[in-house]
Amino acid sequence: MTVLWWVSVVSLVVWVGLAWGHGGFWRTDQRLPAVDGEPAVWPAVVVLVPARDEAEVLPSSLPSVLGQEYPGRARVVLVDDHSTDGTGALARELAARTGGLELTVTTPPPLPEGWTGKLWALRHGVGQAGDGEWLLLTDADIAHRPGSLRALVAAGEGAGLDLVSQMARLRVASRWERLIVPAFVYFFAQLYPFRRANRPGSRTAAAAGGCSLVRRAALERAGGVAAIRGAVIDDVSLARAVKRTGGRTWLGLADRVDSVRPYPGLGPLWRMVSRSAYAQLRYSPLLLAGTVAGLALVYLVPPVAAVAGAAAGSWRTAGAGLAAWAVMAGTYAPMLRYYRQRVTAAPLLPFTALLYLLMTVDSAVQHWRGRGAAWKGRTYPRPQPHAQPQPHSPAPAHTEQPAEPSAE
What we know:
By secondary structure, the protein is an alpha/beta fold. It folds into two domains: 2-26 and 267-376 and 387-407, no CATH class; 45-265, Spore Coat Polysaccharide Biosynthesis Protein SpsA, Chain A. The protein is 46% helix and 13% strand. It has helices spanning 2-21, 58-66, 87-98, 117-127, 148-158, 175-191, 194-197, 216-221, 234-244, 266-280, 285-312, 315-338, 349-368; strands spanning 45-51, 74-80, 102-106, 134-138, 142-144, 163-169, 211-215, 249-259, 374-375, 378-379. The strands form two sheets. Strands 3-2-1-4-7-6-8-5 form an eight-stranded mixed β-sheet, sandwiched between helices. Strand 9 (374-375) and strand 10 (378-379) form a beta hairpin. Helix 2 crosses helix 3 (87-98), helix 10 packs across helix 13 and helix 11 packs antiparallel against helix 13 (349-368). The longest helix is centred in the last third of the chain and has 28 residues, at 285-312. It starts with a helix and ends in a 29-residue tail after the last strand. The chain crosses the membrane at residues 281-301, 313-333, 345-365. This is Glycosyltransferase.
């Protein structure tokens, strides 16, 4: 019990450090920057929607994009990435029925070696963007509430930003979604604290690929989409490329942007996470082992110490475990409130973290079996070094948010 006490004390110290000294990762106050007024001249915007077999969700998302009211010139380019379910035809039908912004549906050439499907689709879309000064990269399963586009552009122009990204509010309808989705965003914020990522000069850079407004000139300065062509975790790679070339980036939680993609059971959520979790660890067995150990120490030791200590009558062990568990739950509560979930569910975070640990291990196993980074009939090999993401903490490996994989 002495060893468990020491380990629980270490876990408690780590949690206190995370809560007070890790960029306020647990706070949910990073929303669109407040700016004075609106642009005198609204810049031209092109909305790029990569889509592969998205007929199921398109009726719930595309009309909201086409219906955006924008004071300047704006149009939508949907890149139908060789869908087999009539995605392109459905998009045209929805545009004819909805009206609003002009829609262009286009199909890219066959996917070349070294590219992920989504990024190849986006590259093709950028080529169709004409003179758009801003490009809104938004997934086919993302719905935009009224005023979303206008608010994004106003924030980008008013705050002098080059990349404005919002993490869409993901669906939490099913029991598994309520258990896993808020934790997904919480873990992402722990890996990439929003406040730190938004600080000019900080080495931390991150974005949410489901909704990223990027200045055309900044994207070109960063080398265009080709600079990250092999990235499985493309949102973070894009933010790094823009920031590395002197651009200013911003990431926060969304109030007007929602994912409509359903994940009704554990299986779809598991595949969503495990398909690219190992990529976050740079396909390194050593980093995988460190991540597993870190997860166990930070998330699993507190409840084990609390229960085992109480059962054995070691109240100092139980106390240390309970204290660490309480800090953990306290930092998770704001994310649950953001997702309109009961904060009484916060103590369940260790169980969710255990699931993420198993998903990360499964991601490595699938990679070793040659089935890693697979999505919608495509399996991607290990990306080139320039596109590989860098982990920042022992938290669960980040993958694209659930709204991301529309064109992979």
